[in-house]
# Entry
Amino acid sequence: MSSENDYKMSSLNEVAKKAGVSIATVSRVINNSPKVNPETRLKVQQVIKDLKYHPNRVAKRLRNKSASGNLIGVLIPDIQNPFYVEVLRGIEDVAYENKYALIMCNFSQDEKKEQLYLDILQSESVDGLIAAPTNEHDQKVTNLVKSGLPIVCVDRGLADVDVDVILVENQNGAYSAVDHLAKAGYKRIAYISGLRQLPSSQEREAGYSNALKANGIPIDRTLIRYGDSRHESGVKLCEELLNLPSPPDAIFAGNNLITLGALETIHKKGLTIPSQIAIIGFDDMYWSISLNPPLTAVKQPAYEIGRRAAEQLILRINDPARPTMSMVMKTELVVRSSC
Amino acid sequence: MSSENDYKMSSLNEVAKKAGVSIATVSRVINNSPKVNPETRLKVQQVIKDLKYHPNRVAKRLRNKSASGNLIGVLIPDIQNPFYVEVLRGIEDVAYENKYALIMCNFSQDEKKEQLYLDILQSESVDGLIAAPTNEHDQKVTNLVKSGLPIVCVDRGLADVDVDVILVENQNGAYSAVDHLAKAGYKRIAYISGLRQLPSSQEREAGYSNALKANGIPIDRTLIRYGDSRHESGVKLCEELLNLPSPPDAIFAGNNLITLGALETIHKKGLTIPSQIAIIGFDDMYWSISLNPPLTAVKQPAYEIGRRAAEQLILRINDPARPTMSMVMKTELVVRSSC
DNA sequence: TTGAAAGCGCTAACAT
DNA sequence: ATGTTAGCGCTTTCAA
# Structure
């Protein structure tokens, strides 16, 4: 009796044989069906223990098509972005609490990859999906919603379909950041945006514009740069900005990867923050305090977003007919020393 | 003809019916079996396209038990650690290239969670697993290896069983870091270790000790602190160290979360790096340059480790009998301004 | 209260 | 070259 046997998967059949009952009865015991004799139940449970039986999730999913409580897909645009890592953590904690496993798909902002993963997710018969679509009109995710698969969107919604969504106050958050900059006396405030087609980028830009207007600062479109939400574009666009004949005196960075990239450029140029150039980031990181200088940032409740998304998804899986909801989370301006 | 129909999963059966052939023939077409008439193949392929047919991965796995080329499990101790995020990226890229999906399990250094995930992974009939076990004698992973499931370990091996493993030169890396510190004139060099039972922690400690010896510095055990590889323990242990009657003049941090935690403490105390306290981290981050001050660190090729692990796993899935191998990756000391 | 059997979608052995 | 069929492990009628 080697320990190898401990790990050979035993099936319903083996349990049934050993317990001297039919597989149907074993199945009933496992699923807590009330219609089973207490004695039989005890006997079967004992055998299940002895055999270290674990139900085969694959067979279960094949049989049940869905809603069998075991697999959730997560479609993430960029795992390098600490924001999504936190969201993922939130999702994962809730999933674990509810015995769901996660199938994680990081599509790196590549639409082809997104499509492949969506196909895979579907053909894995996931019970539901948490996704951050590439844009509001993402046909791939939209179709999936239409097909009836339970879906919760995070960070970005879908325009053409009714879907649960967890958002943050992008516009307000951006406003508070830029307003802070303006009130501190900065006049030439630049905005480095993430992917322009993202609703979040647009909303943050709106907040930026409004704050400038409210503070009587004219909008200079050379100070607005659009990137791809990645570290490299933070590096590059910050460089462009700093090389301008009349460079900005402050930068509002559209996400944390961009912030990190911009910081890199600023440091390479040997500029001092905030005396030579101020910077404020959208999205905080727990180690922002250890940056040079400690970063002022708009904090999104990323972990909480993940939790809410997962909770909502489970609710929807259990009741596909429930009305859709959209939840908007607050942001918080964390003032440190970068402006 | 609503777009909803586009997403209803069609089965082999439907394709077969529509194409006027048997499901076996369709299966053959899908799996590129040579034994099929070119004309038939064309006809079937057309129907597959029309119906937007995608094979059901669940049925496939149920049927094949494993080695059907589609699902890899990843068991990660801490997704908050940027090192593992990079490893994950490497794994994911290779998986994607080979059409594997990833089922991600982050057990947050919780052994119960680890066990549950291992059970799930097994009952999902994954083709293989990439894992960073909790310690060398991790029975749970060891048993799984014995059961014959293809497994590759990263960052830490398994003592009681033969298994593929991708390691880094922990001892050399630590040595180079501490040697650098010693040569720079630091005398009281502390080591904040991650979880003591991890082979990597032990190897790094060995490198630390050897470097001290080689430089004629006596080992002071009050300067060695053991934590749990997390940010908080970096914060706390650094505090303890700094509060010592005779505090260290330099800190060697056992991993990047600890480094970040230690930095936080140092900044909170208002100490200047490196004049009042030097610090060097094991494991680099791409934004280390933007830390205060730019961090000197031992760089591990994390992304590469992930890639190699996934490549090796796929090799093993395709040939379970191949001899096991262990690969040791080099580290590199990146000198910036923190010491 | 329990069992027998159909069927989820697929592959592969066997038959034609 | 193609079709028929058994069976992977499970849930769920339907019968007993």
